[in-house]
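hey can u check if this looks right to u? its 390 residues, i copy pasted from the old doc so theres a chance i mangled smth
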Amino acid sequence: MEKTWRWFGKKDTITLDMLRQIGVEGIVTALHDVPNGDVWTYEAIIELKTYIESFGLRWSVVESLPVSESIKYAGSDRNQLIENYKTSLSNLGKAGIKTVCYNFMPVIDWIRTDLNYKLADGTLTLSFDKIRFAYFDCFILNRAGAEKDYSEVEMEQVNELNKTISGDEKAELIHTIIVKTQGFVNENFKGNVQKPVELFNQLLALYKGINKNQLRENLKYFLQRVIPVAEEYGMHLCIHPDDPPYPVLGLPRIVGNSEDIEWILNAEKSPCNGFTFCAGSLSSGLHNDVLAMAREFAKRTHFVHLRSTEVSENGDFIEASHLEGRGKLIELIRIFEHENPDLPMRVDHGKLMLDDVNKSYNPGYSFLGRMYALAQISGIMATVKNEIKQ
């Protein structure tokens, strides 16, 4: 597999020269300054592509060309937004960029309740605490009927937490779930958001009455219109799994298990309609057998995210070492190196460690933590390739 790295553009303090020195081959990036829904011009794409190539690297994957909320909930302007998306895809195709990772998660991207969970070795990782998330849902958002989404035992714990949680803890939970995480992955929360909870509830309201079947149909409507453009340029569109891979906040989620993935791939049977295999997202759901899913969908996978999670019986999880956890990355790499070895892959959500602790990296995207993970993964890949040769 091709070793790639998510890079956040010229403003990223991790430079392309640094990445070249640590063995990165391809870059995963986007036109991060273009507002969600606007057209990516051919000129802007070529300018960034040329810049990347000047460092001896290639622009391997777009992550991501965002799908606007209005496309997801079928707003009145979705057709125009889809036309803009098609134009951007066409411009990427003309520039020779063939792989586009996107997601169809309503309102919120990946969710964590703690961005600095301390591990036994002193490093920091990302974590999800179901009770604290339920507290956020029931007592901060005050979502109507939220308590029905949790068990009686879970609600007892949530009510106990409500008696002891401090104002600072509440503020930190809001900052973690809405502002800090979504601020760099979701256009809805970019900039200085003055009333994040109010904005968040406004966005949730847009999906009132939309169930899983309707969201699926909205995705199908989108795919039917954009896949022909991908086919024209020999591109791959690869949808990212939901993270975590189950419904949250009363929102439907449609990329959380094997049945979901199969439905999406059958909605448009074109080989250009594919999957981003994120071992971390999939492994955070106890219902998923990550290795079985890899075997099932290897041929329709066009991009791989290599990370892993450790999950408790109650659904809490942390981002695990790349050598441990439910992602089972060693065996996963064996599957993909045998079944689809030309894929781009990137290590994901590295630990926060050493000097990176004091730097303002996006959550999960530290330099040393990802470099450490890349070294681990590179060793696994070299071993597996040697096994195949023998």
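The chain has two domains: 2-109+211-310+326-389, 114-205.
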